[in-house]
C-alpha cells in the first residue's frame, strides 16, 4: 500500500507538471504593462460609460504607441497598412502614432485615397443590403439602423471615408470585439480598439487625408463595405 501511494503521488506530480509550469513571475512578465492598462482603462465620462478594454488577448505590437515612420505623406495624414494591420497618423520629424487595427477579410478589402468626410460620436450602424443578404438572421432586424450603444459594432466613434465628396461607405471605427485586432475579419471597414478610436478621433479633423495601402498578398479585391 505504501508503494502504491508513492506511485500515485509521483503520477499526480507528473501530471501537474504537464498541465502548467508557469510561475507567478512568468505570469507577471506576460501581464500587460501598467501604462497600457491605464491607456485602455474605462471612460466613465462617455455618453455610454465605456468599460476598460481587456487587452490580455491583444498582441502588444498592436497597442498604441509612437514610432519612427518613414513616409512621403504629409504630417496629419492617416495611412492604413492593411497587410501589417497598422494605422499610422503621420507626425513631424519622421514619427507617427501607430495603432493596431482589424481589416476586411480576403475579398472584402478596400484600398485607395480618401478623406475624412464626416466624424460621428456614438454613431448609428446600418447594415448594407448585401450584408443583410449574406447574413439575414443577424442583420435583417437592423435594416433601419442600430442605435448607438455599447453593443453597436461601430463603437464610440466613427470616421467616414469620402472620395470626391461622396461617401465610400467605408469607415474607421471602434469595435465590440477587441480580440479581432490584428486580424482580417471585418467585411471591409477598419476597426480599432475603442480607446484608440477615441484617441484618433480627437487628433484628426474633417478633411484629413486617408491613404489605405493595398494588401498585395491577397489574390483578389472586393468592394463590399461593412462594419
Automatic annotation (TrEMBL):
It comes from the Bacteria. The keyword Transferase applies. Pathway: Cell wall biogenesis; peptidoglycan biosynthesis. Pfam families: YkuD. Residues 76-213 form the L,D-TPase catalytic domain. Transmembrane segments: none annotated. Residues 1-21 form the signal peptide. The active site is at 173 (proton donor/acceptor), 189 (nucleophile). Keywords: Cell shape, Cell wall biogenesis/degradation, Glycosyltransferase, Hydrolase, Peptidoglycan synthesis, Signal, Transferase. CDD domains: YkuD_like. Belongs to the YkuD family. This is L,D-transpeptidase.
Amino acid at each position: 500500500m505504501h508503494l502504491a501511494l508513492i506511485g500515485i503521488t509521483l503520477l499526480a506530480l507528473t501530471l501537474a507538471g504537464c498541465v502548467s509550469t508557469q510561475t507567478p513571475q512568468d505570469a507577471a512578465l506576460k501581464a500587460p504593462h501598467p501604462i497600457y492598462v491605464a491607456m485602455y482603462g474605462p471612460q466613465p465620462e462617455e455618453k455610454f460609460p465605456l468599460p476598460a478594454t481587456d487587452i490580455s488577448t491583444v498582441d502588444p505590437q498592436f497597442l498604441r504607441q509612437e514610432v519612427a515612420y518613414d513616409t512621403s505623406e504629409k504630417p496629419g495624414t492617416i495611412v492604413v497598412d492593411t497587410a501589417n494591420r497598422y494605422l499610422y497618423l503621420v507626425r513631424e520629424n519622421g514619427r507617427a502614432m501607430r495603432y493596431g487595427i482589424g481589416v476586411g477579410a480576403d475579398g472584402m478589402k478596400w484600398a485607395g485615397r480618401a478623406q475624412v468626410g464626416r466624424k460621428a460620436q456614438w454613431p448609428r450602424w446600418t447594415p448594407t443590403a448585401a450584408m443583410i443578404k449574406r447574413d439575414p438572421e443577424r442583420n435583417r432586424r437592423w435594416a433601419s439602423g442600430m442605435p448607438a450603444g455599447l453593443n453597436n459594432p461601430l463603437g464610440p466613434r466613427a470616421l467616414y471615408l469620402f472620395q470626391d465628396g461622396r461617401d465610400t461607405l467605408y469607415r474607421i471605427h471602434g469595435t465590440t470585439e477587441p480580440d479581432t485586432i490584428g486580424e482580417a475579419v471585418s467585411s471591409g471597414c477598419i476597426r480599432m480598439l475603442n480607446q484608440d478610436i477615441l484617441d484618433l478621433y480627437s487628433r484628426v479633423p474633417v478633411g484629413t487625408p486617408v491613404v489605405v495601402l493595398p494588401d498585395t498578398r491577397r489574390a483578389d479585391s472586393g468592394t463590399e463595405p461593412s462594419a
